[in-house]
Predict the 3D structure of the following.
Amino acid sequence: MTTLSATAGTGLSIDGARRQIGLALCAVLAAFIVGSALYGRLTAWVQYEVVLMLALGATFALRPGPLRARPALDALLSAVLAGGGVFAGVYMLGHYEEIAAFREGLPNDWDMAAYVVGTLVVLEGARRAEGWLLLGVVLAGIGYLAFGHLLPGWVGHRGLSAPEVFELAYSANGIFGVALGSVVEIVYVYVIFGAVLRLSGAGAFFDWIAGALAMGRRSGSAQCAIIASALFGSINGSAPANVVANGAITISMMHRAGFTKAYAGAVEASSSVVGQIMPPVMGVGAFIMAEITGIPYANIMLAAVVPAFLFIFSLSCVTALEAAKLGIRPPEGLDGRWNRLRLLQMLTVLASFGVLLGMLFSGYSVDLCGLGAIATLLGLSLLFKETRPSLRDLRRMLVDGGLEGLNVAVACAAIGIIIGAVSATGLGIKISQAIVALGQADLFLALLAAAGCAVLLGMGLPTAASYLLVVFTAGPALTQLGLPVLTVHMFVFYYAVMSAITPPVALAAFAAAAIAQEPVIKITMHSMRLCIVAFLFPFLWIYQPELMLQDLSAPHLPALFGALAALVLAVVMLAAVQVGHFRGRLSWPERLALAVAAALIYVPGAVTTGIGFAAGAAILGRRLFLTRRQSVEVTP
């Protein structure tokens, strides 16, 4: 926020006063989340209202508005908006039961005033939190609610009056629906956990272990970025936020090693996306999925293991071959030695995640599991002077825990309006029917349509918000085609996550471009090329369900290991095709042959997989043999 010269009566600048108020509200919000998880939640409506009021107040205090050039007027406008949020929230807290019992569908003037003010305040909060793109999407949904009767064919509907639109928007079917509920009940606890992990110093262990694992490799700087960003991305639930947090270090480190800035930015953006699908936390997506579907967390985590491993492996292969092609030297000066501090950091990390997983598998609620992990992390950190946080650090944990969840909370509140519009107008059913019709002719076409829907609707949104929006739109169609619920949700979730690097609105690429000072389109194109293998994985779940690890009985293990071996080889082959290098420059006929062999592996069927595996192994094996023989001949 720009420094402001105007001052309040106490001598504190308006900017400083607003910031202090905003940070205080963030701390209160985090304390409320932790307290309600520990002592029991209030009723859902009250819980959501309180969180939304605090989040909106903090957003208006910390994010400048349209009058930022005139600080006093902008502060006044922000105060009015925050007051509007408090008015709507307090009114609904006091009259919700009466409205639900007697006036649902028949609001009086005060009810309507609360609906209108509350909705408008949320819209402006969403604009300040996530920008004009999100606001435009939500306004399009509101426009569809009001003017859908003017649209032709199956896209149209009867249309809603203005009072009906605002009542729907500011209700449990809209702003206070499943999207905001997931943030309040699940996401925020893990955002706070991520803040505690980082500020306690335990998170530094991720960076150190990533650097230690990458030592001595040509692509060491890129491998370090991949490992560190994947680990942090799994916790923070936002690929763009992860790029911002790690990119300033990793992008410059890769550029110094010899990669171009655009390529380094793409590696950071792509590896931040990996974290959103990587167990055990999966950017809190696994917990939301378990809450919605009722599927045990263990099953969801197992389903994500293979694609997460292959995704990271593919990035590692591509960057290793690129480094070899460029002749990059291994990084120097990395300290890979263990000491007491590293051992204590490892202890706190392993213990906190161990408690998290142990409580999850024991059947405790998701928020209590997160709270247990936070308590374990803090408790162990306080025991040792090397890891003991100061009082200032403890305050920052509380403040940052509330601050880092603001965007997703306000965004999900606004996304609730879209979900309500899709449901109330029947648009979701119509889209599902269209996908089902495609699926009756060809399942692959239906999957392509669902993937496109997920990428399109997920653009510009945090992981949790994009998944929730997409799964209620495209998910039911795939379920109607007879696919298992877990398969459908993982398919949709995966592509919603991938929207962070797909044009035209690739938020992770935008964040990387800002750090690398390179055109967004260059970073987006590099990211798409780096992740080309990842876009194929969800289809494998459909045609090779054993990869979801839901049945690990002995009869299924040979098929599973065979499929994994083939996919690992396919990943290596596609990496070589992309880079044009494998133990030396690859000719175009070799690249074409490897691409065909990899495609055969991805085609369902034992015969095609066997042919592709044999052909790919022969080509790569020949390259290894020739380069090894040449090195022996050169050796004196």
Summary: Residues 71-103 form the longest helix (33 residues). Residues 14-173 form one domain. Residues 1-11, 632-636 have pLDDT under 50 and may be disordered.
